[in-house]
Every structure is written in C-alpha cells, then in structure tokens.
C-alpha cells in the first residue's frame, strides 16, 4: 500500500482524532530526507528527529553532546524528504532548561527548520516551560520516565515506575504536563501498569510508548533499533523487524502493521 496516494498532511488535529478513535499512532525516528521519505511511504504517522542521533549517527555514548546546530541541521534534512507525516524535533540538552524564554527561542529555530512540534524531557519542573510554549503557539510533546538527557542523575538506563514513590511521581508529572498543554507524552521504559494508568487518566493528551506496553495511544522506536543497525545490544523494548524481510522498507511496513494491529509491543518487550 502506498500511503502517499492520499498525500494530505498529518496534523495535530488528525493525531487527536486518531487518539479519540482508538487508532494507534505510529512514530519512528529519522535524521535525513531519504529515510523520512521511506518511512512516510510505509505509513509512519509521526517522524521524530530525535537527539538519539547522538548515539546512532554521531557515535556518542549518550545524547548529551547533541547541540541545537545538530538538531536544526537534521530537522532541515528530514523535512525536505516529507510530504505527509507529522514532524517532531527534540530540544537537546541545555537548550531549554535555563528559562521558558530560552526554550521558546530554540523551539522557534526548530519550527523554522521544518518541525511542527518540539519535544522536551522532564516532569513537573518543565510544566511552566510547556505552558509558556503552548500559549505562544508552539505544540509540545513531553517526555517522562527514562529521560536519556538525565541518564547520569538516574544512575543509568533504568526502568522507571517500580517503586511506590516512582509510580506516584510519574502520574503526577503526567497530570502536570497535560494541564500545561502538552499534546503528546512519550513514556520511556515505564512499567506497563503505570503506563496503562497514565493513558487511562489522560483527557486529550496522547501517550506514546517506548518500552511502556501496548496500552498507550501509540508507539515510537529508534529507526536503527528497528532495522538492527546499532552498536551494542538491542534494547529489550525493540523488536527485530528485519528478520523475514528483504528490505528496510518491508521492515518498516512490518512495524507499522504490528503497531496498528496492537501486535507490538508484545509481552517480551514490556517491563
């Protein structure tokens, strides 16, 4: 199926409709025009220019070295390859934490580069910044749970939501971010039960899981994890979609089909 046959752009309103109708939202990272073109041809709804490029493109051990210049460049490259999908770009570490005004300045740079929404990491402490951006016309995707920009503070890449205090904190953060106006919320490496509860409690905000179970409104993966091109060990929450296929395009289509049909993530991909 060629999803570009109906080339109407995917909008935030359309993502809200999908959430309301129970249609799973498929998100996948891309960092250049070529992969962006392939992904939306395969039916990916949302393309994320993630600061994960620090790991999979630049070869760093974390996302912390990624700069605004890197994000602007890769957002511009990715946007040029797109016709239909919705484009989100990450605000990298140090580009939004200082003040809401700093966040607005750098969000504007990403929107000018072609993004339709910005993503930022952090819980309640970022609610004021989210509200500031949304009130000034910048759509925001929030991100809680395992937040890679805080990997040193978290003590490593650890599953979140395994203690009573952690569960209550995650639920509190989700409420605060939705009340501040976040339209999407990425839940990363959060226990399935917590992600299910947060998803059930949202009113308008759509939840996007990565290692957070199948009950979220959608799923996101890093492209390189999906196609098996990455250094080190494949994360538990990722699946080998290349097995049994002959091309990258077939692997991406398999991911889209499995998310839409709620076959992915399976129990073995959850915590």
UniProtKB/TrEMBL annotation:
> Where found in the cell?
Cytoplasm
| Enzymatic reactions | (6R)-5,10-methylene-5,6,7,8-tetrahydrofolate + 3-methyl-2-oxobutanoate + H2O = 2-dehydropantoate + (6S)-5,6,7,8-tetrahydrofolate
Concerning its family, UniProt says: Belongs to the PanB family.
InterPro entries according to UniProt: Pantoate_hydroxy_MeTrfase, Pyrv/PenolPyrv_kinase-like_dom, Pyrv_kinase-like_dom_sf
A Pfam family that this protein carries is: Pantoate_transf
Single GO biological process annotation from the record: pantothenate biosynthetic process
Keywords attached to this Swiss-Prot or TrEMBL record, sorted alphabetically, are: Cytoplasm, Magnesium, Metal-binding, Pantothenate biosynthesis, Transferase
Positions annotated as active site in the UniProt record: 188 (proton acceptor)
One GO MF term on file is: magnesium ion binding
One Gene Ontology term, aspect cellular component: cytoplasm
Source organism superkingdom = Bacteria
Q: Indicate which residues the UniProt annotation says bind 3-methyl-2-oxobutanoate.
A: 51-52, 90, 119
Binding-site positions, Mg(2+): 51, 90, 121
Annotated organism of origin:
Candidatus Methylophosphatis roskildensis
**Free-text comment on the cofactor:** Binds 1 Mg(2+) ion per subunit.
Protein role:
Catalyzes the reversible reaction in which hydroxymethyl group from 5,10-methylenetetrahydrofolate is transferred onto alpha-ketoisovalerate to form ketopantoate.
Describe its assembly: Homodecamer; pentamer of dimers.
What the entry lists under SUPFAM superfamilies is as follows:
Phosphoenolpyruvate/pyruvate domain
Question: Would you tell me the protein name for this molecule?
Answer: 3-methyl-2-oxobutanoate hydroxymethyltransferase
């Amino acid at each position: 199926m060629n999803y570009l046959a109906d080339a109407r752009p995917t909008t935030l309103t359309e993502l809200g409709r999908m959430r309301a109708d129970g249609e799973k939202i498929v998100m996948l990272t891309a960092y250049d025009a070529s992969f962006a073109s392939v992904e939306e041809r395969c039916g990916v709804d949302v393309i994320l220019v993630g600061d994960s490029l620090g790991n999979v493109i630049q070869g760093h051990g974390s996302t912390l070295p990624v700069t605004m210049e890197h994000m602007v460049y890769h957002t511009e490259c990715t946007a040029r390859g797109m016709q239909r999908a919705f484009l989100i770009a990450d605000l990298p570490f140090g580009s939004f934490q200082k003040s809401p005004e700093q966040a607005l300045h750098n969000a504007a740079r990403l929107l000018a580069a072609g993004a339709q929404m910005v993503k930022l990491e952090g819980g309640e402490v970022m609610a004021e910044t989210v509200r500031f951006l949304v009130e000034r016309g910048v759509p925001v995707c929030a991100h809680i749970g395992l937040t890679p920009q805080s990997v040193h503070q978290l003590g490593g890449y650890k599953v979140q939501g395994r203690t009573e205090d952690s569960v209550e904190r995650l639920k509190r953060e989700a409420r605060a971010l939705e009340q501040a106006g976040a339209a999407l919320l990425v839940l990363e490496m959060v226990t399935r039960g917590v992600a299910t509860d947060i998803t059930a409690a949202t009113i308008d905000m759509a939840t996007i899981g990565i290692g957070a179970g199948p009950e979220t409104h959608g799923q996101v993966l890093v492209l390189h994890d999906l196609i098996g091109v990455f250094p080190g060990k494949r994360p538990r929450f990722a699946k080998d979609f290349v097995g049994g296929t002959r091309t990258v395009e077939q692997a991406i289509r398999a991911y889209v089909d499995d998310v839409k049909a709620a076959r992915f993530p399976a129990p073995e991909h959850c915590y």
